[in-house]
Amino acid sequence: xxxxxxxxxxxxxxxxxxxxxxxxxxxxxxxxxxxxxxxxxxxxxxxxxxxxxxxxxxxxxxxxxxxxxxxxxxxxxxxxxxxxxxxxxxxxxxxxxxxxxxxxxxxxxxxxxxxxxxxxxxxxxxxxxx
Length: 130
Prior knowledge:
Blueprint: E1 2-6, E2 9-11, E3 17-24, E4 33-40, E5 47-53, E6 59-61, E7 69-74, E8 80-85, E9 94-102, E10 119-120, E11 124-128
Parallel strand pairs: 2-11
Antiparallel strand pairs: 1-3, 3-8, 4-5, 4-9, 5-6, 7-8, 9-10, 9-11
């Protein structure tokens, strides 16, 4: 399994950015999974942001991004996922990672999902600055 994130860059405060994650994997028809996003700012722990379950499309968000970020699946690709980020703030500056948890659904909260992740993608840098 390989995860490839893209779409990061420099954006002004209040701006928007969309991240993409392509998951290169072959799953059986019955395989379910949770796919989502984390971020890590310098000197801080990796923070779970959002997750979407393959079975039912249920989404979970961290309080820090709820109402500003939207996760969605890429329907043209079996396991792709997007993160639409709006109303960006300087504190959103971080390296963003996509993550895949096989054979489980999204957790009820993003806290602690870090320990359930099976696969990590390489990060993409997001910088929010004027």
